[in-house]
Amino acid sequence: MQGRITLTQYLIEQQRQHNSLPADLRLLIEVVARACKMISHNVGKGALGNFLGSAGSENVQGEVQKKLDVVSNDILLEANEWGGNLAAMASEELEQIHLIPHRYPKGEYLLLFDPLDGSSNIDVNVSIGTIFSVLRHTDKTRTPDEQSFLQAGTQQVAAGYAVYGPQTVFVLTTGHGVHCFTLDRELGSWVLTQSNMRIPHATHEYAINASNARHWHPPVQRYINELLMGKDGERKQDFNMRWVASMVADVHRILNRGGIFMYPADQRDPTKPGRLRLMYEANPIAFIVEQAHGAATNGQQRILELMPTQLHERVAVFLGSKDEVDRVTRYHHEMG
Ligand SMILES: O=P(O)(O)OC[C@H]1O[C@](O)(COP(=O)(O)O)[C@@H](O)[C@@H]1O
Ligand SMILES: [Mg+2]
Ligand SMILES: [Mg+2]
């Protein structure tokens, strides 16, 4: 392919080359990308569209929903009711799964999403995003339920995210590398701008919310203390820290120049290991990171191999440049 390649052209080419991207999965991805375009439009309007501030409601995690959390969720639900070959959807903003009334149980796929990632950044005009994951609906003899969604991340057939920042980008994997499309705002099309993104194995940059330091478990304390000691410690080099507080934006930086992102479990509530949700935050990002030659663990094992037990379960996350993820994972193994 030469010249300007759109998302549609790229997906058709994938279908031709790998023969592994069925037409209905291509349609599903295009519908999600179109929904992200609409979300981007609303994010860009901000106060002009009355999109800032709280919606006055709480989601299943007990978090106050922002207006854009609700709007983005509605856009994704509505767009996907009629596009793709879906049996059901699940969202950070919905307690229960959302069945597709005219289609289940026959639909081929299950779609999960975090409609708006980085909610605390909405009102202050800092990059936010959308994360999605696609699984197969395996047992078509029965109406999908929560159990149908509880599959390991290795079963994902596609995953991606959008970042609504200075540029709007859509980053996608279908298991053949990671590719980035930039929204041409004048033409309204997604244009391929980076192919086969690679995360360097070595890095001098890390991301963690250090205000939780006193609660961290010993392996995380040990790892971060070494980074903080820089040249004067056993790592013998200085490290830089970045924390956007939107995982998508932190991950996008890591895909572009390396780094490690951490949201560890800590000593507070053992029923809440970390802050991030396994099925629609950690799994899709872990799939992307591994496809970009990085690593993603919960400190003990590959995130993608974890068997979920609940739709909204949380998981500790260490992901990005392989050398650093391997090191902090080793500290967890060594220190029990
Ligand atoms: O408030 P903290 O501790 O900085 O946490 C920020 C983290 O929480 C999240 O915003 C959670 O996502 P939501 O906004 O979808 O709840 C991540 O994107 C981000 O990395
Ligand atoms: Mg999120
Ligand atoms: Mg969210």
TrEMBL record:
One of its GO terms (molecular function) is magnesium ion binding. Mg(2+) 1 binds at residues 92, 114, 116. Keywords: Carbohydrate metabolism, Cytoplasm, Hydrolase, Magnesium, Metal-binding. Substrate binds at residues 117-120, 209. Mg(2+) 2 binds at residues 114, 117, 281. GO terms for cellular component: cytosol. CDD domains: FBPase. InterPro entries: FBPase_C_dom (IPR044015), FBPase_class-1 (IPR000146), FBPase_N (IPR033391), FBPtase (IPR028343). It is found in: Cytoplasm. Homotetramer. Belongs to the FBPase class 1 family. NCBIfam families: PRK09293.1-1, PRK09293.1-3, PRK09293.1-4. This is Fructose-1,6-bisphosphatase class 1. It comes from Mycoavidus cysteinexigens.
